[in-house]
Amino acid sequence: MRNWCIKVVPNPIDIDKFRPQNKNYARDKFKIPIQSKVIAYGSIDGLSDLRKGGDLLIKTLEKICESDINLTIIIFGKDKKFKIKNNSKIKIIYSGLIFNEENLSLIYSAADLMIVPSRQESFGQTASEAMSCGTPVIAYNTSGLIDIVDNNENGFLIDQYDHNEMANRIIKFLNQKEKLLKFGENARKKALKEWSYKIVSD
Description:
The chain is an alpha/beta fold. The chain has helices spanning 23-29, 54-64, 101-110, 125-132, 163-174, 177-194, 197-201, and strands spanning 37-42, 71-76, 91-96, 113-116, 137-140, 155-158. α4 links the parallel β4 (113-116) and β5 (137-140).
């Protein structure tokens, strides 16, 4: 089959709905502290779906707790509240299931970084939606996420499933303001170039 013509058609995104929005306004909407570093995580089944890496997320957050970073995480999907060992710094906000794309866009815009710790993704819609909103993504180097995140350009791909390295990279990245902004710009550019309905339909 090596001589066949093979083309990959990605899932399209409404780039007008999933767009960068004012970060302060977005944080106020969800009562997120303005001065906090913010990451987002989302899954329809919340933290209970092992394919989406909810357990890996918890391990990552527990590692982050060892640092002195002022962090807020907003989690959308079915609620499954959990406690982080030795948690004194991380504020957790549960937004529940989000059915309104405008509100979902605001969550992505409120975050400095989207974390996608999935073990399996056919494409990774939350990653591409976040990037369309100008939010960089950190994920494991696996499955469909490889086609979404360009490592060290609009986010980072971490070796499977090294939650310690994931935590270290998150801490370091959140303290690099200029890099966050640049990666966010690159993320939006990729969405416009590859995932709009016009581009995909053509």
